[in-house]
Amino acid sequence: MLTGYHTPVLRGVGEDQVTQDAVARRLAAIFAADMVGYSRLMSADEKGTIARQKAHRSELIDPKIAEHDGRIVKLMGDGMLVEFASVVDAVRCAVEVQQAMAERECDVPEERRIRYRVGINLGDIVIDGDDILGDGVNIAARLEAMAEPGSPG
Q1: What are φ and ψ of residue 152, in 5° steps?
Q2: Rg (the chain; Cα; Å)
Q3: Domains of the chain, with CATH numbers?
Q4: Which of 19, 87, 92, 136 could form a disulfide with 125 if both were Cys (CB 3.0 to 4.6 A apart)?
Q5: Least confident of 40-49, 73-82, 144-153
């Protein structure tokens, strides 16, 4: 179970008035993933790309995330943000997903293959309802953008 802690944040309200709000934070491993060439794949075969993506999610990606005790925080069309309590679980999940994706897509022509970039960061996050925010999330997203397609992050 992921647990958090509260850190006071000081915000200036006026020139000489400061209020203090509690912000829930916790340390977490953040897994940010994005499909490579999504627009190009959708242009070439929208229906097929959507069907393959749904199959990969339901048959591989979502079960692997659950197997490694991850929590899907949000889906963004061709990407996702996932929270893990353990960086080891996040990395294992990424490796297993990337290896299985290579096997699942090996018979698909190179230009039509679905591949992902994954970035993983262990960092402090801010809890906002069911969402997560903060530098820990931003760094994972930056690492994802720099990752090699098909690499575990």
Answers
A1: -75, 5
A2: 18
A3: 25-146 (3.30.70.1230)
A4: 136
A5: 144-153
